[in-house]
Every structure is written in structure tokens, then in C-alpha cells.
Write a structure and sequence with these properties.
The protein has 709 residues and is α+β, with helices and mostly antiparallel strands. It is built from 24 helices and twelve strands.
């Protein structure tokens, strides 16, 4: 049985060594015309391959014949010396043999150890010694081999790790092959030193390490070597790394326990048990924790993998999307959503931006017409957390109740109920929330990781700066339009001044020539012409005031609605749906002017036979005036960006300040004007004015806000 067992290992040794020798010689022959791919190290690599092939044949021959190991030992020393020369030439290929000073003494020291080992081997082969001396000599020989293998591994590590980034691709496979060769020898000689004998079972597989070395140099010489890269999956790497951590932990725990048993004296066993108990408890608490696993995954992803994103490509695509112009380009809001959605291949999304009160409302939608967004998409109370932290919300995590900030974050119910809503990305500019992007679920859903968060924060900041700049430009343009309006008013005042001058001149002449028929006839013509000019001017301006309220007083709201209905008594379209006898604090003339403007706009937007409803009700501490029509309606973009913008009118000859002035008049009465509209369905204008009984409450709230400010 022992003979069969020994012959089995000898057979494996011969087979692997012979295969390795054949592979090495074949590689040397194939590499001969292509040795220039390794630069100045090409010829030394050929020599090292052939010497290694000779060493493999010597080891195989010794295993087959059962003769001494002097010849294989000499061949192994020659092999190591040849590969040390190769390493030195690889260092010289990028000039580091001159710039890295410790390379020379390390290579010379390892060469000296090999030569010393050759001398010891030669001396031992010439004399006959007893077993004790031979055992000591064996240990010295193994120590020499260990020194060379450790030194070789250090050189290989520095060869690759210290190389410039553009040179590493050429050194990757040669360094891997040499590391495999000497790593196997390191384990082999370590076991031999600890066991005080030659481990035949492990030595039989040395040929496998040579085959790996041959394969690595073959890949290094291949033309497509840059494409042949080991890319393990993140799951496999994480599991392997976890096992490595557990193994290191167990080894460390056993080592410390053994040290305590040697150094603990009489209480060694008790100290050892206490240590093992606490160490095991710590492992049970720390290793299964979700935070620990998450940290390990992030660490591995950062240091063991290339980045998921090609940041240059992502940046170019982002700038192309956000900066596209022309007549066919999407509006800025839709481009903002698209630029972020492209990162995750999301098919659609929404942009929410703050309204006048600070709550988020729908500003733009990109390829997502079916989602129903309420008038107040995200209330103002839910925005503080996003503004402070820039937290990117995974809605699947929020639906499952696994959000890390579950007690602080508030996700609107309409987002949680819509299964297509996938993520919420806040847009923060100078610590101020300028909007949010809601992304729809992509076809391939995955969990966010650190790289996603980093990229989204950078893109979110850029998008926020675009939105802030766009808002600043709109404010500047609005200010410019106001200046133009002031110039228009100056011309109007000039016309009025001319008319006033004509009336003054006419009055003075009437004192002198009133009794003349010709003067009276001419006076009638002048008066008629001036009155027509004045009426035309008043017609253009009669519906617009200065946007201010002179005096706030208690007003019966029912009288206002009745006055409005009286203005439209000849139009059967206008219907008073509901009214209440309530008293509000406001200005009667301004309130009537606002309602008349809203009713007239509703009539203009409706068909002749389509009713327009006016109603008055109570809502909390406010009187609620509603003007409802079923006309053409307005898009969300028009309501958001154009309805209340001054000097933007869809009517021919209109000033475009009616809606703007109506909103300002309502605000001057401490009220609010809201709009709900859908294209093709109609519009609802809601005017909220404080009740007279609630005036004191609003005044106290205003004074408290001023004190806080």
C-alpha cells in the first residue's frame, strides 16, 4: 500500500513536470519571433523559460529514477536566478532600475543567497554526515529557499504596484505568473520547514504552478491581452472576502488563545475561556449586522472594482441634454428630468418646484402623462429634511418601511401609491431646495449604492444651478418688462396731458367765442374727437389698476357676488351656484374687480352655450369664492410659467397684466388665489379672503412672524 501510494505521487509529479516542460519549450519557440513585445526583457524571458523547462525535466527525472536531489536543486537555483534577471529587466523597461535605489541590493542579495545555497548543496553532496547533521542542513536549505521566495514575491509586488498606470497592463500577466510560482514555493517550503521533511504530496503539484506561469506569459504575449481581465462579480467577491475575514478572525482568535495559554499561568484556562466567550459574542453581534455588511460591500466596490460609470461619457451626455437649444429642444424642466433619468435608463419623470407659498408643485413632466399629481405635490413641512441632508429617497425602501431616516422623512401618499414612482432626487443649490425630480421605475431595477448617490448628488447640484440661473434670468426679464411698462405709461400720460391741454385751450376760447356758430361747430368736432381718444384709452386701462388696496374694511361678501352678477345680468352663461351671507376683511372695489376679471376670462374661454359658475362658501377661516368653467382649460406649464407673468397675453391687444394684478390684489387683502385647470376640461379659480372674525388671528400671526424675523 505504501509503495502504491508513493508511486502515485511520483507518477503525478512526472506527468505535471513533463507537461510543464513541453508547455515552456512550446512557449519559448512561439515567443522567439515576438520577444520584442517584452522590450529589453524579451531575451531574458526566453532564457528563463528554457531553464525552467530544464528544471522541470530534472525534477521529473529524479522522481522517476529515485536518485538524489542535487541536480534538481542546482536547476532550481538556476531557475530562480534567471527569473531574478527577468524582474530586473522588467524594472529597467520603464527606468525604475535607476530611480528605485533598493532594487539593486535586493536582487544582489537574493542572487548571493542562491549561490550560497549552491555551495552548501555541493558540500553536502561530497561528504557523509549523520542524521542529526543532515536534518540541520535540510532546515538551512529550506530557509535559504524561503528567503529567495519571499524576496521574489516582494520584488514582484513592487514591480506591479509601483509601475505607472499606463505600464501596468503590460506587467499584469507576467507579475501574476511569477507570483503564482513563488507563492506555491513559499507554501511548499513552509510546510517542509514545519514538518522537518520533504512534503512529497504537495511537491507533486509544482508542475501545475509552472503551467499557470506558462499560461500567464502566453496571455502577456497575446495581442488582445488588455481584453483578458479577471472580472469577478461583486457578489462572489463579497462572499469570498467575507470568508477571508471570518478565516482571519478565527486564526487570530486561536493565536491569541494559544498565547494566553502559554502566558496565563495558573489561570490560563479561565482567561482563555473568557476571551473566547467575549470574542465569539462580538462576532455574533458585529458580523451579521446590516451596517457591517453594507460597509464591506461599499469598501469592496470602491477598492476592488472599476467604477460602474464612465464619468466622461456621463458628463458629455448630461451637458448635451441640459444644454440643447433650438426650436425643437424640450423646455428646460423636461431636459432637467431627462438628464437625470438617462443615468438609470428611467423611461420618464417629473420635476417639482416651489410655488409662492414654498410647497412643491408640478413644473414639468417628461414622458409621464398618466401620473396624477395633486395641486400641492409635496407640502412645505416635508421639505426641511431634504433641504438639510440632500437625501435621495428610494421609494421601494420607503414602501417597505426600511428607510434609514424613517422617523424624519415624509413621502407624499400619492408617490407611495403609484407603483411606477421609483426615486426622489432633491435639487439643492446653496443649501436651498430649488426642486425635486421624481423618476419612474426602469425596466431593470436595482438598489442604489454609493456610486449612484455620488453621481446623483453631483448632477443634482448642476441641475439646481441651472434652475436657479433660469429663475434669475426670468426675474431679470420681468424687471425689464416692468421698465418697458413704465415707458408705456409715460406715453399714456403724454396722451392724457395733450387731451387735457386741448380741453384747457377749448375752455379759454369758449369764454371769448362762445356766441359764434362756427366756433361752436368746431368745438363739437374737437370734443367728439378728444372724447373718442379718451374713451379708447380708458377702455384699454379700465380693467387694470395699480395692484394695491387703499383700505381694508369689513365687506359683506354676498353684496360683492350680487354686484358681479348685476354686471353680467345680460349674459345667461353666468350662474350663481351658491352664496353665503358672510363678512370678510378686504376692499369691496378690489374684490369686485378681481371677480369680474375672472368671470370675464371664464366667458372668453368657454363656448357661448357653456355655463360659468360663481359661488361663495366658507372654508375654515376664509371665504371661498369660486369661478368654474368648462372651457378650453390650461396646461400645467402655462399655469406655472405664463398665467401670472405680467405682459404675457394670449389675447390680441391685451396688456397681459390682468391675472397678475388679480393675484396681487388678493394678496394685498391677505388672501390667496389658486388655480386648478386641465386642458379640454376647464378651469377653477379659487379666491380665499379672510373672514372678518379671523382678522385678529391673522394679524397676530403676522406680528409673530415679524418678531421672529
Amino acid at each position: 500500500m505504501a509503495y502504491w501510494h508513493g508511486s502515485l505521487w511520483a507518477t503525478l509529479d512526472i506527468a505535471f513536470d513533463l507537461s510543464a516542460a513541453i508547455a515552456l519549450v512550446s512557449l519559448a519557440i512561439w515567443l522567439w519571433p515576438n520577444r520584442s513585445r517584452f522590450g529589453t526583457a524579451g531575451t531574458p524571458i526566453l532564457v528563463a523559460l528554457l531553464i525552467t523547462a530544464g528544471w522541470s525535466l530534472a525534477v521529473g527525472s529524479a522522481s522517476a529514477s529515485g536518485t538524489g536531489m542535487f541536480l534538481p536543486s542546482v536547476a532550481e537555483s538556476a531557475r530562480n536566478l534567471a527569473w531574478l534577471v527577468v524582474i530586473y529587466r522588467l524594472f529597467a523597461s520603464d527606468g525604475r532600475h535607476a530611480s528605485v535605489a533598493p532594487i539593486h541590493p535586493v536582487v544582489f542579495a537574493l542572487a548571493f543567497v542562491e549561490l550560497l545555497h549552491l555551495g552548501v548543496d555541493y558540500a553536502l553532496s561530497r561528504v557523509v554526515l549523520d542524521d542529526n547533521v543532515m536534518r540541520v542542513a535540510f532546515e538551512f536549505n529550506v530557509m535559504f529557499r524561503l528567503l529567495v521566495t519571499v524576496g521574489g514575491l516582494v520584488l514582484v509586488h513592487n514591480l506591479y504596484a509601483g509601475a505607472p498606470r499606463d505600464v501596468r497592463s503590460a506587467l499584469r500577466w507576467p507579475a501574476t505568473g511569477l507570483a503564482m510560482l513563488w507563492a506555491f514555493d513559499l507554501n511548499l517550503y513552509t510546510i517542509a520547514y514545519l514538518a522537518a521533511r520533504w512534503p512529497v504530496e504537495i511537491a507533486a503539484f509544482r508542475g501545475l504552478a509552472i503551467l499557470v506561469l506558462t499560461g500567464c506569459f502566453t496571455l502577456a504575449a497575446a495581442t488582445n491581452r488588455d481584453e483578458l481581465r479577471l472580472r469577478p462579480s461583486r457578489a462572489v467577491t463579497f462572499q469570498t472576502f467575507s470568508l477571508l475575514v471570518i478565516g482571519i478572525y478565527l486564526v487570530a482568535m486561536v493565536a491569541v488563545a494559544q498565547w494566553l495559554s502559554y502566558a496565563g499561568g495558573n489561570f490560563a484556562r479561565m482567561i482563555e475561556l473568557i476571551f473566547v466567550t467575549f470574542a465569539s459574542a462580538a462576532a455574533l453581534v458585529v458580523l451579521p449586522s446590516r451596517r457591517m455588511r453594507g460597509w464591506l460591500k461599499v469598501t469592496l466596490a470602491k477598492h476592488f472594482f472599476q467604477h460602474r460609470y464612465d464619468y466622461r461619457e456621463e458628463w458629455l451626455r448630461f451637458t448635451r441634454t441640459i444644454g440643447s437649444g433650438g426650436q425643437k429642444a424640450l423646455p428646460l424642466g423636461e431636459r432637467v428630468v431627462q438628464s437625470i433619468a438617462d443615468v438609470f435608463e428611467s423611461p420618464s419623470g417629473l420635476l417639482l418646484t416651489p410655488d409662492e407659498q414654498g410647497a412643491l408643485t408640478l413644473a414639468a413632466r417628461w414622458n409621464w402623462p398618466q401620473v396624477k399629481v395633486p395641486a400641492v405635490a409635496v407640502p412645505m413641512r416635508a421639505l426641511g429634511f431634504f433641504e438639510r441632508t440632500g437625501f435621495i429617497a428610494d421609494l421601494d425602501e420607503a414602501r417597505a418601511g426600511r428607510t434609514a431616516h424613517g422617523g424624519e422623512i415624509e413621502i407624499p401618499e400619492w408617490l407611495l401609491q403609484d407603483a411606477q414612482a421609483w426615486a426622489v432626487i432633491p435639487l439643492v443649490h446653496y443649501e436651498r431646495l430649488v426642486g425635486m425630480v421624481v423618476l419612474a421605475r426602469p425596466q431593470l431595477v436595482r438598489k442604489f449604492d454609493w456610486e449612484d448617490f455620488d453621481l446623483l448628488r453631483v448632477i443634482g447640484q448642476q441641475v439646481a444651478s441651472y434652475l436657479a440661473e433660469h429663475a434669475s434670468q426670468e426675474a431679470l426679464a420681468e424687471s425689464s418688462r416692468f421698465e418697458d411698462f413704465h415707458r408705456r405709461i409715460a406715453f399714456v400720460m403724454h396722451d392724457i396731458k395733450n387731451l387735457a391741454s386741448q380741453f384747457s385751450l377749448l375752455a379759454r376760447n369758449a369764454e371769448l367765442h362762445a356766441d359764434k356758430p362756427e366756433f361752436r361747430a368746431d368745438m363739437l368736432v374737437t370734443l367728439r374727437s378728444s372724447s373718442e381718444k379718451l374713451n379708447a384709452l380708458l377702455t384699454r386701462l379700465s380693467r387694470y389698476g395699480n395692484g394695491a388696496v387703499d383700505k381694508l374694511e369689513q365687506v359683506h361678501a354676498m353684496e360683492v357676488t350680487n354686484a358681479v352678477m348685476e354686471r353680467f345680468r345680460d349674459n345667461p352663461q353666468v350662474v350663481l351656484a351658491e352664496t353665503r351671507d358672510v363678512v370678510v376683511t378686504g376692499n369691496r372695489h378690489s374684490l369686485e374687480q378681481v371677480l369680474v376679471h375672472l368671470v370675464q376670462n371664464a366667458i372668453d374661454a368657454s363656448k357661448p352655450d357653456s355655463p360659468v359658475f360663481l359661488s361663495l362658501a366658507i372654508e375654515g377661516l376664509n371665504a371661498r369664492f369660486e369661478v368654474v368653467d368648462s372651457g378650453c382649460g390650461m396646461s400645467a406649464d402655462f399655469v406655472r410659467n405664463r398665467l401670472f407673468k405680467p405682459f404675457v397675453s394670449t389675447k390680441s391687444g391685451g396688456f397681459g397684466i390682468g391675472a397678475f394684478e388679480a393675484r396681487e390684489l388678493v394678496r394685498a387683502m391677505r388672501g390667496r388665489l389658486d388655480v386648478e385647470s386641465r386642458e379640454g376640461l376647464g378651469s377653477r379659480f379659487i379666491v380665499l379672503v379672510p373672514l372678518a372674525a379671523a382678522t385678529d388671528i391673522f394679524q397676530n400671526m403676522t406680528s409673530q412672524d415679524q418678531k421672529v424675523a
